[in-house]
Amino acid sequence: MSDVTLDNMVGHRWRKPAFIKNVALRWTLILGFVAYLIAAFMTIEVDWGRVYEGLDRGWAFVLAFTSPDFTSRWSDIWSGLLESIVMTVAASVVGIIISIPIGLGAARNVAPLPVYVICRGIVAISRALQEIIVAILLVAIFGFGPLAGFLTLSFATIGFLSKLLAEDIEAMDRVQAEAIRASGARWVQWINYGVQPQVMPRLVGLSMYRIDINFRESAILGLVGAGGIGATLNTAFDRYEYDTAAAILLIIIGIVMALEYLSGIIRARVQ
Amino acid sequence: MPVFERDDTQIWRRRTTRENMIRWFGWLAGLVVFAWCWQIISASTTWFFVWDAPRIANDIWTRATPPRWEYITQLGRPIWDTLNIATLGTIIALFLAVPVAFLAAQNTTPSKLLIRPLALLIIVSTRSINSLIWALLLIAIIGPGVFAGVIAIAIRSVGFCAKLLYEAIEEIDHSQVEAITATGGSRWQVMAYGIVPQILPAFAGIAVFRWDINIRESTVLGLVGAGGIGLQLSASLNVLAWPQVSLILIVILVAVIISEWVSAKVRGAII
């Protein structure tokens, strides 16, 4: 710090530097935000009487977690859960297999421009459409059942994995890849020995993460008729059977926790 | 490194025979599981509908095009609601996530044995349940409407924000905290001047990132009755008004692209 600025600062009390330095910008943002908040609160209609009435039911639901009912609807829960798991596994496998070539194609340092544009287009479409909307369309086309859910999850997996894989390939170390190429490798060998070892740990980690997401998503696809535990859960809520709903939610949380733990172990091993 | 001797020449291989066998059986087991999953999906699929799918898809496409553009005048309010659900939900979530994150981070938690596991449990359980399920639950409790959507988004986001935030807290530079402690700062002063300035950029990034995700999620919350543009989508789907559906999908797509652009810009400005 130069002497002049130091002189200016002597005798002044220290103040916390602001997060946004530009004064005008800071105040415009703050005022705009406050104005928006007021407008938003004005337009939200909350029926406080209804909310107050619901508090009892909310409390009943919280209590249901202490005595979840796994048994009385077990066959429904089991069939829904099995369908969810099956959809997750099948969709993850297919999604990962398809997303590897698309990921390669979407990496600018591996693929030529036309391939790159096509693959990036696929990724963009897949990422822009939410699972549930894709599921609605696929249910309309393929009919009710787990096939629609399977296709939805595969499609979503492709967008997610290809994008992250492509970014990882683009950020890879060029030296290794060039060394393989310099030894006279063909394109396939170059990918196999120069690129693949570098991105493999991340691919495994991302795949595990995606399996986790796919399971969570498979729990809601049933709401629109695409198979899985969601339909059972929806029925349980509609019939105010909170103990069954609590049981299903506990199972979902348990499986997600187990998957997260498992993926932690696997990621620690491959890295 | 496995090296084999055969006919007096040493041959390098990547894996030993035992490792090869283990891998081979692993792949076989994976294949069997996948085949079994596919079997289940296939058994509960009406294949006639699938073979008929191209015709159905074509039919839907001709019904959905061109979109009914004049319907957009009725979408203003739902879009405003969607924006409110996402923004207010994110704000509430951030207020709840900050204390949870401080309780969950190893270096700031008051008690590692008691409070940290509790905070982690809150993070995992809110994170593993999709906002649509939270919305279903809240609609059963406090009735349909925008308010249920706001709360659903808020609960779903708490775990996500708190997780990213507590990871940021754990990664802070410790010497700054020590410096504030050495000047005799109290626990709160250490937090305000030693920790908060370090995590503020991460906090802003997380907030915008989650807001972007919440815009996506709030567009479909209406499918279960929690307000926003999803209400119009589900109403149009129920009466098979495909031209309206296609217009709503276009609007959702535009909203998602805009929110992603905004979030990328803001994060670019912060980092």
Please give the CATH class of chain A: Mainly Alpha
Distance between the termini of chain A: 43 Å
CATH topology of the largest domain in chain B: MetI-like fold
CATH architecture designation of the largest domain in chain B: Orthogonal Bundle
Question: Rg of chain A, please?
Answer: 26 Å
> How does the overall form of chain A come out from the CA principal axes?
flat
Key phrases:
heterodimer; A: 271 residues; mainly alpha; MetI-like fold; 79% helix; B: 271 residues; 2 domains; two-stranded antiparallel ribbon
Provide a quick synopsis of the model.
By secondary structure, chain A is mainly α.
Question: What can you tell me about this protein's structure?
Answer:
The complex is a heterodimer of chains A (271) and B (271). Chain A is mostly helical and 271 residues long. Chain A has helices at 3-9, 23-43, 48-64, 74-105, 113-128, 131-142, 146-170, 174-182, 187-221, 229-238, 242-270. Chain A has a single domain (71-270), classed as MetI-like (MetI-like fold, Orthogonal Bundle). Helices cover 79% and strands 0% of the residues of chain A. The two termini of chain A are 43 Å apart. Chain B is an all-alpha fold and 271 residues long. Helix content of chain B is 76%, strand content 3%. Chain B has helices spanning 17-43, 47-51, 53-64, 76-104, 115-128, 131-142, 146-170, 174-182, 187-221, 229-238, 242-270; strands at residues 3-6, 9-12. In chain B, strands 1-2 form a two-stranded antiparallel sheet. In chain B, strand 1 and strand 2 form a beta hairpin. Chain B is flat and about 70 Å long. The model of chain B has no long low-confidence stretch (mean pLDDT 87). At the A-B interface, helix 2, helix 3, helix 4, helix 6 and helix 7 of A face helix 1, helix 3, helix 4, helix 5 and helix 6 of B.
